[in-house]
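In the design runs reported in the main text, the only information available to the sequence generator was the tokenized backbone. The following block is the verbatim input for one such run; it is reproduced so that readers can re-run the procedure and compare outputs position by position.
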């Protein structure tokens, strides 16, 4: 409650200024301003490594009313969050609920943000802000307190993946089949989804060459920023493809697999960030509601011979997945592990396990 009257502002690179009040850390930051249209799931979203380098705007008007659950690590995996800490640079909301109520809540959102030294503003017209970002495209921005000076900063001009990937290989679970998980900023629920299927998972850094090891399949995780910055990952995936080992890419993993195959990627105008993105499976009338968080996409027109689009976004027609017509290579732009969001596409993990012959 003590932060309720502390003024701060969000400035966009086009000169727009949005005044609000602090409910997080009193710290000025600069990054890329993006919006998420999901109604719930802020504990999972704020800890998603794909948001590294970004100031997140939540379009749902009331945030914080159910607090934050207690984080517990079981067998090396977090029970609630998608990484060990909050990954966003800053948070922007319309209304913040200083009172919270949920049987699993252990602390307030404000207290959690302060604990992780992340600034947050409420009292912002997020409808107007989101409309500007939607019409003009994602912009650079900065959260400023008092007369602090922080320069605008484009996080996509650096390799963000190396900031969020594991530092060294780590193994999880047990099973007859061994899967290499290339950690480009992996969400914990990808790991949980693989371990729950009785797979031995070895999580490796983004630039780790594992091709001389014994393994049955490879998963390429989600991650922040421009996939073209991950040249070492792309080169390693190309070597894996030469072995014709099953490969499953998720989010940035979709882009990495496409680049390794010889296709191209590009930056979306404002990206897809929510738990309500409709994706249609090509060749069918089947539509899945998916969880997404990305600012780049695969250019489906550049797919080489023997590759085909697998899913397409029903809203804007952008690519949401690719697969090889004959070899065990597939990837999706959305998140089949959800967290948060619907689990309509969780079956893709079962499809991948069946590929591990």
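Verbatim output:
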């Amino acid at each position: 409650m003590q932060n309720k009257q502390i003024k701060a502002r969000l400035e966009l690179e086009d000169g727009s200024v949005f005044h609000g009040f602090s409910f997080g850390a009193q710290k000025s930051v600069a990054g890329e301003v993006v919006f998420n249209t999901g109604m719930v799931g802020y504990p999972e979203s704020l800890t998603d490594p794909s948001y590294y380098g970004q100031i997140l705007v939540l379009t749902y008007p009331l945030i914080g009313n159910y607090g934050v659950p207690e984080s517990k690590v079981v067998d090396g995996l977090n029970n609630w969050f998608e990484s060990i800490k909050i990954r966003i640079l800053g948070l922007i909301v319309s209304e913040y609920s200083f009172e919270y109520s949920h049987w699993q809540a252990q602390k307030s959102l404000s207290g959690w943000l302060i604990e992780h030294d992340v600034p947050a503003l409420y009292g912002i017209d997020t409808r107007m802000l989101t409309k500007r970002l939607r019409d003009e495209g994602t912009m650079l921005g900065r959260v400023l307190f008092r007369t602090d000076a922080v320069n605008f900063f484009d996080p996509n001009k650096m390799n963000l993946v190396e900031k969020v990937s594991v530092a060294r290989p780590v193994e999880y679970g047990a099973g007859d089949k061994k899967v290499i998980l290339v950690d480009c900023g992996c969400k914990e629920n990808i790991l949980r989804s693989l371990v729950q299927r009785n797979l031995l998972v070895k999580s490796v850094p983004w630039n780790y060459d594992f091709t001389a090891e014994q393994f049955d399949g490879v998963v390429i995780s989600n991650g922040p920023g421009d996939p073209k910055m991950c040249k070492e990952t792309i080169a390693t995936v190309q070597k894996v493809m030469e072995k014709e080992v099953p490969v499953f890419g998720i989010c940035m993993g979709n882009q990495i697999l496409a680049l390794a195959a010889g296709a191209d990627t590009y930056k979306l105008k404002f990206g897809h960030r929510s738990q309500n993105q409709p994706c249609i499976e090509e060749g069918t009338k089947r539509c899945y509601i998916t969880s997404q968080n990305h600012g780049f996409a695969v250019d489906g027109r550049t797919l080489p011979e023997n590759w085909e689009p697998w899913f397409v976004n029903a809203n804007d027609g952008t690519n949401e997945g690719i697969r090889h017509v004959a070899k065990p290579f597939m990837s999706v732009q959305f998140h089949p592990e959800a967290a948060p969001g619907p689990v309509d596409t969780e079956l893709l993990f079962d499809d991948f396990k069946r590929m591990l012959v």
